[in-house]
Amino acid sequence: METASDTVRLFIACEVPDDVKANIGTLITNLKARSGTDVRWIKAEGVHVTLKFLGETTVKKLPAIKLAIQEAVVGHSPFELEFSNIGIFGGREGLRIMWVGIAGDVLRLEALVRATNAALSVVGFEPERRPFRPHLTLGRVKDEIATRRRAEIEVAVGKMAVPPTAWRTAQVSLMRSRLTTQGAFYDVLATFPLRVAQAATS
User: In sequence order, what are the beta bridge partners of 31?
Assistant: First the structure.
């Protein structure tokens, strides 16, 4: 029988540079002024672009997962991304999650997501059915917040300006998520550089 120590909570992501994290921190500070303690804000130092969430996975599967990611990144070269606008995901009660959208070489990012899904499906992970919407999560509205208050926060968020921010994505990371009472903490288990193999010269 497997115990908790035999499993890890995994996801695959593209990390972002420190200056992007700093701008996320500034955005969250500005949003806090408008919505305060009604939202659980993410830690800016842990922000990343999630390509695929794997969930609780047996440690024994790690070698196969690493091989699959290595295969997924083949033929993908580094690309440029940037912030777009503040957006939201809603539920029946209204505003649920706040995020900043990602623009730039989104088609390259989407191709990388498709390759990741295809490679991981071979080792037993179901491809994601929902459409990929590139974003960086900022915060989640607390469950107990009333629908009217959610609407007020949504209006305030919609007026927020986003600082011009661009960065280069040059690798994919296999990440472990550790859930604690202080929030989620992330560890990088392996990195996979994006690079197109050089054509052989005659």
Answer: none
What secondary structure letter does DSSP report for 74? B
98-106-162 Cα angle (round to 5): 40
**158 half-sphere exposure, CB direction, 13 A CA radius:** 8
How far is it, in rounded angstroms, from Cα 101 to Cα 144? 26
In a 10 Å sphere around its CB, with 0-12 CB exposed, 13-18 middle and 19+ buried, how is residue 133 labelled?
A: exposed
CATH topology of domain 4-193: Cyclic Phosphodiesterase; Chain: A, (3.90.1140)
Q: Give the single-character DSSP code of 36.
A: G
100-150 pLDDT, tens digit per residue, is: 999 999 999 999 999 999 999 999 999 888 889 999 999 999 989 898 888
Q: How far apart, in Å, do the first and last CA atoms of the chain sit?
A: 56
Alpha carbons 21 and 6: distance in angstroms, whole number: 32
* Helix, strand, coil % in the chain, rounded to nearest 5: 35, 40, 25
> What is the residue extent of each domain of the chain?
4-193
E strand map for the chain: 7-15, 39-41, 48-58, 79-91, 94-104, 135-141, 166-169, 171-180, 183-193
Q: Which of 52, 22, 4, 19 is nearest to 178 (CA)?
A: 4
pLDDT in tens, 177-186: 998 877 778 9
